[in-house]
Write a structure and sequence with these properties.
Shape: elongated
Strand content: over 45%
Largest sheet: 8 strands, antiparallel, barrel
Oligomer: single chain
CATH class: Mainly Beta
Structural class: mainly beta
Strand order of the largest sheet: 1-3-4-5-6-8-9-10
Number of strands: 10
Length: 210
């Protein structure tokens, strides 16, 4: 997995060093996540949020590179009924790197559309485990006890609809991420506890002038 991330960085580095203008700004999003592992329980999206910084560099008329640094909440939510559930709220520091394809929306002035595909790497900062049955418990996630991996990595894909302002832009972003690493390897457990996340939010970008 580390080789895959290194390959992505080697591919995008030549584009990042060219003389095109950088755009920088911030974004705020809502995240809907769960583990890939299937359980007998009802799978409900664990809802969280994401906030961070974004940089975008237009390479030519159609292609660009997007870099982000995000604080994002992921996890899972397994629900038996309204009174019984098992939930993990996980907080990550995440770095997505994406290739961007831009095209003009016909007959829509000041609007652009973008398609993105790339990779992300993340570090699991902390978590909270909640369970409700006959009583309700909430405790900090114990990485050693749960034999959890703090690192996550995987591909992502999505897009954004951008509206051009006088000195910047505002866009609606959407992205789906697929974790490739088993985050909680349990003894005698053949399930794959991998992140699956859908992210929807807003981004403001402004050109960096010299």
């Amino acid at each position: 997995m580390k080789r895959m991330l290194l390959l992505v960085l080697l591919l995008v580095t030549p584009f990042l060093t060219r003389a095109q203008v950088w755009y920088a700004g911030g974004n705020a999003s809502v995240s809907f996540s769960n583990y890939k592992a299937k359980t007998p329980w009802k799978e409900v999206a664990n809802t969280g949020f994401s906030i961070g910084a974004k940089g975008f560099k237009q390479i030519n008329a159609n292609y660009g590179i997007t870099l982000e640094l995000q604080y994002i909440q992921k996890g899972y939510y397994h629900k038996v009924c309204n009174d019984i559930y098992d939930q993990l709220e996980a907080n990550y520091l995440e770095v997505p790197v994406m290739l961007d394809y831009t095209f003009i929306i016909p007959s829509a002035r000041n609007w652009k559309a973008h398609l993105n595909i790339g990779m992300y790497a993340a570090y699991w900062l902390s978590g909270k485990y909640k369970m409700k049955g006959f009583d309700e418990t909430s405790e900090a996630f114990d990485f050693n006890q749960q034999e959890a991996s703090r690192f996550d990595l995987g591909p992502n894909a999505g897009g954004r609809i951008e509206y051009l302002l006088a000195n910047g832009s505002l866009s609606l972003d959407f992205r789906y991420e697929i974790g490739l690493l088993d985050l909680q390897k349990q003894v005698n457990d053949n399930t794959k506890n991998m992140n699956r996340s859908f992210i929807l939010g807003l981004t403001y970008l402004k050109p960096l002038t010299r």
